[in-house]
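Q: My labmate handed me this sequence with no annotations at all. I'd like to see what the chain might look like in three dimensions before we decide whether it's worth expressing. Could you predict it?
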Amino acid sequence: MLSAVILAFDTPPATGGRGQESAEREAIVRTLASLIDACVAGLIADAMLVGPPDSGLGVIAEEAGCGLVEAVDARSGLARALPALRYPDVLALRAGHAPERGFVDELRDALAYGERGRARVLRAAPSSLLTRIAPRLSEPVGLIARRDAFGAAGDLATLARRLRAAEMTTRARRAI
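A: Here is what I predict for the chain of 176 residues:
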């Protein structure tokens, strides 16, 4: 089983009024909702929402039944969230992205038959001609790794390179 951490730092702060704030919250909710199938399949047991203070994420966390860690940046937020998770294997996922269909099956197979300790990277779905031709150039938006492997990681791309993470076939689409 995995514990999930949703990093809500990439969504820009709401400055354009109520409509933009609503879209940002919707992206976070869609990211959480995309993990429901994995929860039902018994692959993800708990979730932690990590975001900036005073961003109003408490309401989302309460309604979703997940924990909340408020921090000024992703690095310190992730460092504070990791000890509170129930399981040693962690899925860190950037808010605003939702794993595509097939993620649950690939995750189940990786946990059951793959190298359990091997990190796996989830990349964004191709969004340009270049990323369609070379999908490995898409940005990493998710990472599955052991809790102690995260250490003082700054961002998912650096950590995925450092851990030599295996590529997942499934991609993550923009949630909004």
